[in-house]
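Title: Prediction job returns without error message
Component: structure pipeline
Severity: low
Priority: P3
Assignee: unassigned

Description:
Job completed but the reporter wants confirmation the result is attached to the right record. Sequence as submitted:
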Amino acid sequence: MTTRRTIAVLGATGMVGSRVIDEAAARGHRALALSRKAASEDLNVTPVAVDASDPRALREALAGPAGHGAVPDAVVVTVRTFPADEEFLVGATRAVLDIAAGRGVRVLVVGGAGALRSPGDRDLLVADNPTYVPAEYRAVAVAGVAQLQACEAHADADWVYLSPPALLEPGVRTGRYRRGADILLSAADGRSWISAEDLAVAVVDELENPGLQRHITVVHQDAHPLK
């Protein structure tokens, strides 16, 4: 039987964050939906308005203030920026790690594929590989690498960094995915992809049954559906 947890999701209205909220609530966990414009009608979801660029506001939101209930058992960071804003991304991630470390709370960062290593060449980051990252997205990929480095530099926090595959898009929840470590994975048809819904499944799976690796990735188990 799975232990019911309180899971805080930063970036709760985004493509990934909203689906993590739905997945966690569907499994009976309590979710704290942290975003600038907090709103939810789900009884298992508590909306919390917070500015991710404000460390003090983050600390208050993750401290179980009056009306928000218990301190979370885990925090999922799903904030992304396009165009790239590396300073914001790294700053928000560090702030969450600092707060969580002081409370013994686990942090799962949904980062970028750019922090992975290229298949067949472990010395080449995906962020530097034009096969997977077009020039117009390289700054976003590099920001994700900096985000991972911020996690690695934090000696006290309990964290895991989840890199999606090269393509992450809205789709359907199948619950079928393949997990790996720090090398980009491909699906059965050779494409590196997963739906945001199945990424959310992987996020909650990792929170319920933590693995040993600090940097992980997932990919859909089957071929990409034809459009």
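Comment from assignee: result matches the submitted record. The chain has a mean pLDDT of 91.
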